[in-house]
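ok so i was messing around last nite and threw this chain in just to see what happens. nothing serious, just curious
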Amino acid sequence: MKRLVVGVLMAIAGFALPGERAAALSAEECAGLSIRVKDLPEASTARCGGQNFGSGGDLGSGRDEFIQIMGADSIFVVSHAAAGTRTYMKRLGVKDVIGNYHIFESTDDWSEEMESNDFAVRRFNGTLDSGAKLACFGFVHFSGHVAGATGYRHLISGYACNFSPTPPTDARIDKLVGSIDYDFE
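result:
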């Protein structure tokens, strides 16, 4: 049985630039995703999408979904990888998962891991390919432990960044991570 880690990480990387790798969905189709963000901030735009990964068999399979919310001074991205047949996600730390979002040229100044609304969270500074520096936090949540294995059926991960040097406050982290809703466990 293939322990699909590489496929999931490649799929996560595709969400850094969702228009290029994942199919954007209409508003009706976005409502059908298994992840949602409650209480979208005013003056923000949301985009979502999804794609299947793997072909089954020893390669594993599953589905990835994303929601990207652009505000006037921030970006918030939530992705969900759901394992399919013969597949599970290996538990990784926040820094390891965020390292697979190719939107960041580099990351540094990582804080210690903390918890918010059942998500593991870490603050960091991200640098884009353009050289722009952002104050960010990343988050991960694993659920649906696979019996007799070391992996999980679901991984929710993502990041939020301010387009300024001001780091996200604890209250902002709690609000954004607390706004993530999903219909699986």
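not much to say yet. Residues 6-14 form the longest helix (9 residues).
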